[in-house]
Amino acid sequence: MSDTTSTPLPRQVADRYVDALIELDPITGTYLGVPESAGRLPDFSPDGQRAVADLARDTLDRLAGAEARPGADTDAERRCARLLRERLTAELAVHDAEEGLRRIGNLSSPAHDIRGALTLNPTETTEDWAAVARRLRAVPAALAGYRASLAEGLERKLPAGPRQVVTVIGQLDAWIGTDRSWFAEFTADGPAELRSELDTAAAVATGAFADLRDWLRDTYGPAVEGSPNTVGRERYARWSRYFNGTDLDLDEAYAYGWSEFHRLLAEMREEAEKILPGAATPWEAIAHLDRHGRHIEGAEETRAWLQEVMDEAIEALDGTHFDLAAPVKRVESRLAPPGSAAAPYYTSPSMDFSRPGRTWLPDMGENRFPVYDLVSTWYHEGVPGHHLQLAQWVYVADRLSRYQATVGQVSANCEGWALYAERLMDELGFLADAERRIGYLDAQMMRALRVIVDIGMHLELEIPANSPFRPGERWTPELAEEFFRQHCGRPDDFVASELVRYQGLPGQAIGYKLGERAWLRGRDAARAAHGDSFDLKRWHMAALSLGSLGLDDLEEELARL
Q1: Percentage of residues in the chain having pLDDT higher than 70
Q2: How far is CA 338 from CA 170, 173, 212, in A?
Q3: How far apart are alpha carbons 157 and 538 in whole angstroms?
Q4: CA–CA separation, 276 vs 279, rounded Å?
Q5: CA angle at 103 for the pair 42 and 547, rounded to the nearest 5°
Q6: How far is CA 336 from CA 202, 341, 342, 360, in A?
Q7: Other residues' Cβ atoms within 10 Å of the Cβ of residue 172
Q8: DSSP assignment of 502-516
């Protein structure tokens, strides 16, 4: 979009924000595929955080002028302006509450951001590897800034949860290793002419992460011992707005989680009877599948099989329920680096598609992978889930804005679509056998459990009278973990990782079911409006081409398609 006047339109303001953000945050640049970002890391110190906040405030000032300009009232400009204002306002609320001074979690922290960016660094040329070495050498300064933020948080009596700290120390142990670090393994395939430099840079990064681990263990951990692992209603509401793009009625959401729990439990019992007649609970049938159900042997073999699952889904869905452009059809299955959290995840393609979208499987040291809990998960992470949505956003970024296609992402929109995608595949008959269907229902149940325990433990709500578990008691993290274990087919280490995740990212985990509800309501409203002429394929592609929207706007915009 060219700027024809001195006052830009909202989409121009949004894209200028992206340009300026990349300068402050090269990790964002790497996710977008900006080559100049590859050898740099952000400033995670309090000053660095203030610089990002100042950029947000300046952008909001510019947006006010842009919204008054003629031409700013089109649907394209209106959607972008609303998203930009809502996202930056939510981010500033988190910043102003000084949440960045206690950012520790097993899924997201500056330490995780650094390692995640390295996995996305290009590694095809000697210059690519030279950028990797520069980024590794930048790790000590980046982690020093992170430690400065956490130290200031201690001074201001803003502690992170002790359980998060202990878990992250364990992750850092895995990254650092004993004989050889993850960073040394990562650089092992670099070119011979850079061997010495890469080895040195990997050692520098490893040493910096070891220093962080030691400081967390010896200084920070003891200082936060006894602090709560939950955040309370005020902080939770702030984070919920950040992750969901709306001010939720948390009590209504909690009740919805329970209604989904009871609905799914009834369906799971029906499938369990087909698998293990007379099973006392659905999870007894799932335990039977763990021992006797179909499985894949070997992490690499499982990775290859998951690639086939996505390739087959693309072939079956393209032209029938989606119209997919060639770049969107490319997606890669990868194994997650050791020391990752237990949950699979997805990374978006670069803006030019030179790096494709990728799904990542944490093997957690396992060598045997039951099929029942992987199929719907890869429909969620890959196709038609995260990959189709986020790759489509990149494909239509020139019609939207780079902001709407990338850094303006709202978690509940994306996770809601991915959960809708699982349900869609069930509706279309791809989960016809009882083994795969109970795996899908167990995954859906896990998302309902997330709504219940995430809201319940952070707000210390009462467990309702119709609960099969501890009715009338108040939630604690310990009760949340016990409840989760009793009503989820995942292994114990996965459940423990999940509960730490919810404590470190309050309000994020509820967006799956609440986002799915918005997608389903939007589809139902569009179908009602069009009647017999409703075209699901057309609706899917129009919906996936809207770009990011918060839950404030998602349902209404979907209904209009």
Answers
A1: 99
A2: 12, 10, 18
A3: 53
A4: 6
A5: 70
A6: 19, 9, 10, 5
A7: 19
A8: HHHSTTTTTHHHHHH
pLDDT score recorded for residue 4: 46
- Tell me the pTM: 0.95
Sheet containing strand 331-335, edge to edge, reads: 331-335, 357-361, 345-347
Mean pLDDT of 60-66: 97
pLDDT of residue 3: 46
Using CA atoms in the order 279, 421, 378, 456, what is the torsion angle rounded to 10 degrees?
-60
What is the amino acid identity at position 114? I
Strands 331-335 and 357-361: parallel
d(CA 124, CA 551): 40
- The yes-or-no verdict on residue 5 having pLDDT over 80 is no
pLDDT tens track for 249-302: 999 999 999 999 999 999 999 999 999 999 999 999 999 999 999 999 999 999
Q: Distance (Å, rounded) from C-alpha 119 to C-alpha 121?
A: 6
What is residue 216's DSSP assignment?
I
Q: How far apart are the first and last CA of the chain?
A: 25
Q: Which of 147, 143, 130, 151 is nearest to 175 (CA)?
A: 143
Q: Where are the alpha helices (DSSP H) in 138-249?
A: 139-155, 162-176, 182-187, 195-215, 221-224, 232-244
Residue 342 confidence (pLDDT)? 85
What H or E segment, with its residue span, contains residue 251?
A: helix 250-275
Note every long-range contact of 353-356, with CB atoms under 8 Å and residues 24 or more positions apart, other chains counting.
Answer: 353/327, 353/391, 353/394, 354/33, 354/122, 355/33, 355/120, 355/122, 356/330, 356/331, 356/332
